[in-house]
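Sync notes, pocket subgroup
Present: LS, DG
LS reminded everyone that the earlier model was apo-only. Rerun requested with nicotinamide-adenine-dinucleotide included. Inputs:
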Amino acid sequence: MRIEEVSKVAVLGAGTMGHGIAEVAALAGYQVSLYDVEQKFLDSGLQKIRWSLSKLEEKGNLPHQRAEETFARVKPTLSLDQAVSDADVVIEAVPEDPELKKKIFSQIDKINRRALLASNTSTIPISEISSASNRKENFVGLHFFNPPVLMPLVEVVRGGKTDDSTISLARDLVRKFGKQAVICNKDVPGFIVNRILGPLMNEAAWMVARNKTTVEAVDSCAIFKAGLPMGVFELADYSG
Ligand code: NAD
């Protein structure tokens, strides 16, 4: 599939990441179906999209008319079949549970045989999740950061069997979303960003645990010396 043929994106899970990814896709002009298991999760996701669009509007980054059109492009559903059957791209953002993710992708095999398949997992190997699918060559990691609407980077992660055309399509999609794509060509733990971030956060935590310094000193150095946008502990608090 070429990027010009993509018109509908299905996002599975309307939580922290799912609602944000749905908003990003809708802002880029795509029809979006947002799937979750209970109406209250869909309602909460939609409410957060509404709120985020109103913030963009308030800051003068989005005209009112475009905000309304964007919101109208997101169609909530409690039916996986309805969400996925005519989707060109499926982005999964359900909880970080390998068995749950595998179960969903094995179900998708029966509903849709052509979409680009993507998982937003932070830590589970793409090859492991894609092992549940018959279309491993069309399977890729699309790792957004929180909040997806504001964070400019998306990692495109190659699983053991992902083919080159899938990587190209995923990269083009990320660009259409107005984001910067970085390709992680090996399914390594933490991909790129978290692999770097993990040791950084560990070292900071050990220094404080061993009474070598304070949380405030670490965060001051991170921001004012290293030039990072947030302190190490500030970021840990933010991500939870
Ligand atoms: P979350 O708990 O906020 O949202 C998960 C959503 O999935 C919930 O709305 C839940 O009801 C729904 N869900 C549960 N079972 C489902 C099913 N069978 N089908 C469809 N929906 C189902 O989680 P999150 O923080 O958005 O994380 C989602 C994924 O994104 C995880 O893989 C996580 O590792 C990854 N991720 C999270 C962050 C972050 O900062 N939160 C950043 C990058 C990647």
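DG: The chain is about 50% helix and 15% strand.
LS: The mean pLDDT is 97.
Action: DG to write up.
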